[in-house]
Specification:
The complex is a heterodimer of chains A (322) and B (435). Chain A is mostly helical and 322 residues long. Chain A has a single domain, classed as MetI-like fold, CATH 1.10.3720.10. Chain A is built from 13 helices and no strands. Chain B is α/β, with parallel strands linked by helices. Chain B folds into two domains: 177 residues, D-Maltodextrin-Binding Protein, domain 2 (3-Layer(aba) Sandwich); 205 residues, D-Maltodextrin-Binding Protein, domain 2 (3-Layer(aba) Sandwich). Chain B has 19 helices and twelve strands. In chain B, strands 1, 2, 3, 6, 11 and 12 form a six-stranded mixed sheet that branches. Chain B starts with a helix and ends with a helix. Classes of the chains: A mainly alpha (322), B alpha/beta (435). At the A-B interface, helix 2, helix 6, helix 12 and helix 13 of A face helix 1, helix 2, helix 4, helix 5 and helix 18 of B.
Chain lengths: 322, 435
């Protein structure tokens, strides 16, 4: 951006010239002390609250354990076999991936379109931006309970449908196993679209106006400008949003728990909901489910990083490629 | 470390951190709680119960205060938690951490057995012998291998909570005593424009109870008494229970959208539908009057509420005089100070039990308190309990903590048309095999 060039000027002249390193050489010790002081606390927290639980869950997952007794009944991979042969859990994995794909394919284009629209100067833009963002700010439980009441067979949605003469469309939205997952997806889209739009809008702020102006002067139409200039420039934002959306879809829990608890008849079950329902009285088994969820999420995250985010995180996971 | 390597490490860590969020759910957060350890004069006793609203919450607070007054130097820290949260998360975590409450809620049957086998509960057989003798037969479900590990302060049986006004409007005379009469009542309520029966299948367990009741009807008392401890489900009556339920579900007796309804939360839960007069009846435990009362506009138990026991099922092996029920008990942590046992004895004393009965919150276990029950529905339940030839403990409690979710899910699958009676039995067998 143009402003960054200006900032560089005064920074170089203000204050005394940076002195060449005159630090006394006290050997490597000083360097390691610095690294330790800066990275140590974060590293300890990371190890204690991220790595250690992962390792513990992996350990628990090999035991038949009800959470009350000592860990003593080692059963190898039995918990994993049980989870991966349970149709309900497999359905949960399928639901997670359905939500993942649908989120990316449906929410992404809508978010980009709305962001492009809101990026223009128009009356009430601030209000619309705020309104779109409201669902995301609402607490998950509040939003979930509201939807649960609205979508109940005796709830507001059916009442509205009946009052406008569309009573035939009224149905138990969250209680019909055939449509419950798509209703859930609708709720999730309502909730998270605001976040996607916000990210896209932020990305659009970084698109220099000069480029679009230049393209306009060269005679490019609106569509052409968006397709060839705006989209490529906000691609890093889109890729990061897809990443966040995928991870969120795989770990989907709270909205489902509040509205359906994975029902009806497992129609909206997800891996995390299954883990809580079946893992609570059998933490050993629950840990196995958690490890499976972890491995699936990690695999998806790494594959995505390797192939999609490599341009944004050059060298992070792709050293040697470039 | 060069920049490239640092970036790589950071990105890898970030990926792991995102992926790992899910694991937190299983890593268990232990609730910090100050536990009383007998240190000379001053003793603090921690007491966890499941009453989160008055009148019971207030009563327990009073009881704690009175105990403190009668025992100088003793402090009782009493807290009420939501029932399932308490039993499934807080207590197991506290027991596991070794920093457990001194007196806490204990569920009967397989639940108390699991805690006893892990060595967490104090044997009360000797130290509370008088209380055990006073309470009589209702203490049995909290007995493990002939020893007493917790004492119930309330015990009741399950039945139908119904709307007497809706029944009258639908032209139903008396209450259904047999399954055909229940079917008849369902038809009449449907014709009168009411939802006949409310069930919170979204919570799984309220649906599970329907299968439990049909299992009681299908199986002989002897089968129940031998098969459940042995976890042997080969008797054909277990399949028959599912068939009976399947036939009953085919009559379309439940409210629209019952598969997603919750049992106790909100106006659209099964209890809420009874409270606001939408549904005619609900199969539920003895605590239901309080739940329904809390869901009415004025917070008062509705006048129209009535109770009748589960109807008998003609042509089945089950004894129609057996009932299903359960209760709430308190146990004492193995390392708790002696005062904790004294507190438990005080909670179970005739005086406290009479006051408990008078609140209308439940049916007391102390025989002397029986006359203090004033609520007509609770009286009907107490009568039904007294007339039972045998009270089967809730099947999920009796079988053990691991059975609840899989069994109830299998029942909901059947009710949702996606499971068979045989699937339920297979679920039971698979769960038993996984123990």
């Amino acid at each position: 951006m143009s402003t960054s060039v200006i900032q560089a000027g005064p920074a170089a002249t203000a204050g005394p010239a940076p002195s060449p390193r005159i630090r006394r050489r006290t050997g490597q010790g000083r360097k390691w002390l610095e690294i330790g002081l800066f990275a140590g606390p974060a590293l300890i927290v990371f190890l204690a609250f991220v790595i250690l639980p992962v390792v513990l869950a992996a350990v628990y997952s090999f035991f038949n354990w009800n959470g009350l007794t000592p860990l003593e009944r080692f059963i190898g991979f039995d918990n994993y076999v049980r989870a991966l042969t349970d149709p309900l859990f497999l359905k949960g994995i399928g639901n997670n991936f359905t939500i993942l794909v649908a989120s990316v394919l449906v929410q992404g284009p809508i978010a980009i379109a709305v962001a492009l629209l809101l990026n223009r100067r128009m009356r009430g833009r601030g209000l619309i931006r705020a309104l779109i963002f409201v669902p995301y700010v609402l607490a998950e439980v509040v939003a979930g309970l509201s939807w649960k009441l609205l979508l109940s067979p005796r709830g507001g949605v059916n009442a509205v449908l009946e009052s406008i003469g569309l009573g035939d469309l009224a149905q138990p939205w969250l209680a019909n196993p055939d449509i419950a997952l798509w209703v859930m997806f609708g709720i999730l889209s309502w909730k998270y679209l605001g976040f996607a739009i916000l990210l896209m809008l932020a990305g659009l702020q970084g698109v220099p106006a000069e480029l679009t102006e230049a393209a306009q002067l060269d005679g490019a139409g609106w569509w052409r400008i968006q397709w060839h200039i705006t989209l490529p420039l906000i691609a890093p934002t889109i890729r990061i949003w897809v990443f966040l959306s995928m991870i969120g879809s795989l770990q989907l829990f709270d909205m489902v728990w509040v509205t359906t608890r994975g029902g009806p008849v497992g129609a909206t079950n997800t891996m995390a909901v299954y883990m809580i329902q079946y893992g609570q009285t059998q933490p050993g088994f629950g840990s196995a489910v958690a490890v499976i969820l972890f491995l699936i999420s990690l695999a998806v995250a790494l594959v995505y990083q390797r192939f999609a985010l490599r341009r944004d995180l050059a060298g992070a996971t792709t050293s040697g490629v470039r | 470390m060069n920049t490239r390597r640092m970036t790589r490490a950071a990105a890898g860590a970030a990926a792991a951190a995102l992926a790992v969020g899910a694991l937190a759910g299983c890593s268990g957060s232990s609730e910090p709680d100050p536990t009383g350890t007998g240190g000379g004069e001053n003793v603090t006793i921690t007491w966890w119960h499941n009453a989160t609203s008055d009148p019971l919450q207030g009563l327990w607070a009073d009881v704690a205060k009175e105990f403190e007054d009668a025992h100088p130097g003793v402090t009782v820290e009493v807290t009420g938690y939501q029932n399932e949260e308490l039993q499934r998360t807080l207590i197991p975590n506290a027991l596991q951490s070794g920093d457990a409450p001194d007196v806490f809620m204990v569920w009967p049957g397989g639940e108390v057995r699991a805690q006893v086998e892990a060595g967490h509960l104090k044997d009360l057989t000797e130290v509370a012998a008088d209380s055990i003798a006073e309470l009589g037969g209702t203490v049995k479900p909290w007995e493990v291998d002939g020893k007493q590990y917790a004492l119930p302060f309330t015990f009741g049986i399950e039945g139908f909570w119904y709307n007497t006004e809706l029944f009258e409007q639908a032209g139903i005379t008396g209450t259904p005593e047999t399954l055909p009469e229940l079917n008849d009542a369902v038809e009449k309520l449907r014709a009168a424009g009411a939802e006949p029966i409310a069930v919170g299948a979204g919570d799984l367990w309220p649906a599970g109870h329907w299968w439990y009741q049909f299992a009681l009807a299908a199986c002989s008392t002897e089968t129940l008494q031998t098969a459940i401890p042995a976890l042997d489900f080969t008797d054909p009556c277990w399949v028959e229970a599912g068939e009976l339920l399947q036939d009953f579900v085919a009559t379309n007796p439940f409210q629209s959208g019952f598969l997603a309804s919750s049992g106790q939360q909100g106006a659209d839960s099964s209890a809420g539908l009874i409270a606001n007069g939408v549904a005619g009846m609900e199969l539920m435990g003895h605590w239901n009057a309080g739940t329904i009362g809390s869901l009415t506009a004025d917070g008062v138990v509705p006048e129209f509420l009535g109770w009748f026991p589960f109807p008998s099922v003609p042509g089945t092996a089950g004894d129609p005089t057996i009932t299903m029920g359960g209760g709430d008990g308190f146990g004492v942590y193995k390392d708790a100070p002696d005062e904790a046992v004294e507190l438990l004895k005080y909670i179970m004393s005739a005086d406290v039990q009479k006051r408990f009965a008078a609140t209308g919150a439940g049916i007391p276990t102390h025989p002397e308190a029986a006359d203090s029950v004033t609520d007509p529905n609770l009286k009907a339940i107490a009568e039904g309990l007294a007339e039972s030839s045998f009270v089967q403990l809730w099947l999920d409690s009796a079988l053990g903590p691991e059975f609840g979710t899989p069994l109830n899910q299998a029942v909901v699958n059947l009710m949702g048309g996606q499971g068979t009676p045989e699937d339920i039995v297979k679920t039971l067998e698979d769960t038993a095999a996984s123990l």
